[in-house]
Amino acid sequence: MKVLVVDDDPQARRVLRTALVIQGFEVNDARSGEEALEKLRKETPDTILLDLKMPGMGGIDACRQIRELSEVPIIIVSARNSTEDRTEAFEAGADQYVSKPCGIQEIVARIRAAKRRADLVRSPALSLGEVEVNFETHEVKRPDGTMHLTAKEFKLLHFLASRAGEIVSHRRILQAVWGPDYGDEVEYLRVCINQLRKKIELDPASPVHLLTEPSVGYRLSLPRAGRSARQD
Fold this sequence. Notes:
This protein is α/β, with parallel strands linked by helices. Helices cover 41% and strands 21% of the residues.
């Protein structure tokens, strides 16, 4: 797996590079958001580790611009740990958030979890207990019969599956599923979520997979056998 480390601290980049190479990753690095964007335009890594506090283009702006170019998983690795920082990072398109100081094993676990999610959406089917979703035919097989996903429902489910276990903000979902000009139309999203629950949940009134994170967004929870590490 290819990892891009973005941090203005040369020692932090060196430590991460050394540790990740030992773990078997191919590592490139950038000392600014601007440099990260230049490298991303030439080659897409499997995961980006991004610091928030950098001169010039800060981590939040870099995250937004990276997200305009690619759906590559972005893991924030930052000493800033306030609720506001985390919320802003997720709104900008970050997938995970790790607080410094942190151990290399936690970072490796997050990177591998991101890969498992990527592998999940490349597989032909998604298993949700007694319900199975066929990503090729857009069919949902349930104990009480088979249903078909609309194009919007499929895109929404596929996007949440690519971030299974993570809390994804309303704005992030709207921009990914409806388009970059959307972000505040939460009612559109709520209606689609309710329709999707009727198809993938055995009891839509008490969902166990497609979960609401109040005032933040939604999270797709997988059965324990296939569940990815949950986002803090």
